């Protein structure tokens, strides 16, 4: 399954390139019109449903989730990072999945320089620029007892938990093929 999720960016590359080209035409800030750009307010989510296994991979600028991207030094910043990590540890609270699908969490992996879980999390040179654009990466593996009941993913809880997230670029692979979708708080339910 991990191979399938890793292959997702390559399988969806034509969609991503078309989307980046479309963004480039409408976005005059060329620095953010490129594929994979770090853009505040925008997150990426890959979702793969393969048999009974649902894998979700969320990548977001820390600014969207925590409200800052610098290393947490104050007690308030440390508390905010801990609270966000606790929220991210509960994927069934963040992603609205049909109860009838019977999905349960099997594994998760959370990474961010803010969590101290990536190489270079400690900046030895004291160079603050190294963490100016911190990201948070969350990977979840769920098992769904009745995957045919999983017709959509509701991202409303994610948008509600992290209101600075204004858009999620979603890449889906499921029983009906692959698709690229843009979700917003107003259009938060995405069909598989």
Automatic annotation (TrEMBL):
The keyword 4Fe-4S does not apply. Residues 121-134 have a biased composition (Basic and acidic residues). Pfam families: ZrgA. It comes from the Bacteria. This is Zinc-binding protein. It comes from Pseudomonas reidholzensis. Residues 1-20 form the signal peptide. Residues 108-134 are annotated as: Disordered. Keywords: Signal.
């Amino acid at each position: 399954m991990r191979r399938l999720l890793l292959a997702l960016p390559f399988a969806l590359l034509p969609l991503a390139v078309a989307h980046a080209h479309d963004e480039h035409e409408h976005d005059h800030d060329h620095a953010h019109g490129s594929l994979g750009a770090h853009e505040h307010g925008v997150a990426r989510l890959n979702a793969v449903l393969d048999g009974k296994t649902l894998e979700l991979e969320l990548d977001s600028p820390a600014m969207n989730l925590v409200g800052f991207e610098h290393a947490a030094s104050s007690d308030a910043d440390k508390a905010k990072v801990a609270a966000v990590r606790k929220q991210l540890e509960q994927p069934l609270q963040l992603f609205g999945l049909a109860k009838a699908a019977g999905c349960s969490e099997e594994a998760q992996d959370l990474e961010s320089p803010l969590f101290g879980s990536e190489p270079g999390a400690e900046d030895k040179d004291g160079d603050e620029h190294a963490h100016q654009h911190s990201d948070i990466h969350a990977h979840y593996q769920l098992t769904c007892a009745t995957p045919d009941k999983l017709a959509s993913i509701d991202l409303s809880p994610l948008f509600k938990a992290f209101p600075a997230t204004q858009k999620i670029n979603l890449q889906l692979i499921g029983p009906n093929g692959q698709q690229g979708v843009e979700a917003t708080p107003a259009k938060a339910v995405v069909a598989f």
